Fold this protein.
Amino acid sequence: MRSQRYIPVFASLLLLAAADAGPVPATAQSEALCGSLDIPCRTTATSEVDFPAPVVVDDHLKLLPPPERKLRLSTKSRYLVPDEDSSAQSWRDRTDDNVPLRTAWESKQLRSGNRQEASTCKVVNVQLLARHGTRNPNGSDLKQYLDLRTKLATTYTPPPPPAGHKYSFLTNFTAPCDFAMTGMLTTQGEVDSFELGRRLKEKYAHLVSDVGRIEWQTTNVSRTITSGRAFQQGLFAHKHDQDVAFSSLQTSIFPNHQDPILRPYDCCKRYENATENPPLPLPGTTFAQRRYPAIIARLARDALLHDLTIHDVTIMFKLCAFEYTIQGKEAGFCSLFTDEELALNDFAVDLNLNYYRAYGLEGDVNEWLACPLLTKIFGGFDETIAAGSRRGGGTPNHPMAAFRFGHAETLTPLISTLGLFRDPHSPKGIQPHWTDEQIKARVFRGAEFSPFGGNFIFELLECPASQELDHPQRHHIANDRKTYKVRALVGEQPVVIPGCEGREACPIHLLKQALAGKIGCDFDGKCQNF
């Protein structure tokens, strides 16, 4: 029997399926697009029916040993854990059944500039935006999985043994979840978030020792709230601190259309207008129409899978992604595809991500959509700087850390607002006509900056003023003995923000200059919310 484990906070909450976060209106046209092209839809069945949404972990699938194949699956990818050994040990200590833990599947390249100057500074404020951990597929995906299973059960005959054993699952495969648990956090997702909290506790112990000086925020979706709760359990050893933090997390929740910090796409009429009637076919479809027929032909030859459509293959790729990320399963749908074919699907999904959330959308909406979030982050930094000044002006007991939990649709606009992961020779980002060489060499990768459990960290660094004595606009405090810089990390690894002159530790005045118009902007005015 399948079990459902509830973190014991809401004893009597009704279990509802949380809708996938996203702004695309639920017209008949967009529903069809959402189903076939992996685009999030806004539907009427939102998680705001329960306010706050329930805290739920679907743990009916046990984790398998870490997979051997190293797969990038766009925003359905596994998180690249920087330190796999310590992660595995702490999660086993926390659980009763010694569940096998996934580990990092590749060593991540640092994408940073000069690291030496950051080593002479200390972190005095940290701001995190984390995507929820690994989740179940949404309801529209699940329906398509079941439709595919029905089609294959009635039309498919595997090759004779022994080759046919590899494909026998196609006539009776099991979907990753049922409709009651669509969109919910999984055991792997709980691991993702708990381990992130544990790692940040080790790194920023001096900033998180006082639970009363931490700011929290989450969207009103079960998987983000549950991810936040698991993160807090990794961050704090004592139940009292966990409960205090979770109470603060609950009170931070805004209705979707009133949350420009974590759901700007739901609060911006200009964005809604820009995405309501997208040009068809979308970039991912154009690419699939060009490249997937060869995959269909190979599957017909090798697996005797005849009469497959591009839509069928797209669903098979999705099933591969969820089997791989939720459970670490490689013997199912992922076994149908070569690594090269999976790389093509990774690119196809990235094409639509770039169009809707990053650089491909007409106009510049996605390049300032994260303005409310950046304004909040830099407001926290300014408060810390003022509090550290001998001239005063700061708020007593000001927050020393802020932890926020959102979606891929929250992380990606932040990336594009900062100008990160933008391919230098393509202002509109990745394109469907690109060659295999261009696809392989591209900078824009959802698997890199927005996998399940992906995160973005801003550190405010207090540094010796001697590093900036040549710059008249530095912040002077404590008789000019200090100056402030900001370091950004994607997936817990440093990156250099455009406009920072190649410096990992970017002087705050220089970063604010680079982000002029994106901090403190008139969001309602730019969004034409009137």
About this structure: The chain has 17 helices and nine strands.
